[in-house]
Request: fold
Amino acid sequence: MKILCLDTSSKFLSLAVAEDKKILARMHRCLDRKHSTRLVSYIDKILNRAKVPLKKLDGFCVSKGPGSFTGLRIGITTIKGLAFTLGKPVVAIPSLDILAQNTKKIKAKKNKGELSWVCPIVDAKQNKVYTCLYQRQNGKLKRKSAYSLLSLEDLLKQLKGEIIFLGDATPLYREKIRNTKKIKAIFAEEKFWYPRAAQAITLALERFGKGRVEDVNRLAPLYLYPKECQIKKVKR
Reply:
C-alpha cells in the first residue's frame, strides 16, 4: 500500500511517502508555520523524490492535532481535497500519538531497561500544554489517558516515577519538572520534540488494515477545550 503522510501540527512541515512499511521519501522542514504557501509544492517534490505519482497513491494519512490551529486546518483541508479528487481513503492520527513514537529508541536509565512512561508536552500558550500519557508494553506504546489541555501544575499532580518528556514545551518547563520530587524525569533531545510523519506510517497502516478510515466530509482537527481537559487517573 502506497501512502502519503502529512503533519502540520507544529512549526515543522513533515511529510513521508511509504510503500507498506518501507519509507520511500521523507522530509521534516521548519517553515515557521508558513505551511499555506509551501505545502502543495513540497507534496509534489516528495512524491517526485519517492517516484510515486499522485494518482498511484492508495491512501493518505494526516495528523489531526492538537497543535497549531492554522497548520492543522491547512493540512487537513489539503488532504481532504486530494482525497475527494482521487477517491482515496484517509486515516487521521492524533499528533500526540505520532510525537510519542519518537521515544522508540530511547532507553530508560533504571536498570537500562525499557522505558515505561512517556509524556509529550506541547506548548498550548497561556501556561498550558497539550499532553497525554503513554505506557510502553512489549515494545509498543499504549495510550493511558485522554488527550488533554492542562496547566503544567495540574499535569505534574498526576505523575510520578520515571517518565520521559518530549515536545516543544520541554525547554519552557524543564526546571519545574526536574524539581518535582516524585518524578524522575528523562528529557528527550531537541530532535525528538516535534511529530514526524515517518513515525506515523506504522500507525496509519494499522488503521487502514482495520478499516478505520475517516469520513472525509466530517474530518476536522482535534481541538481541546477546558471543559474536556481532565486527565483521568492512571492505574500504576
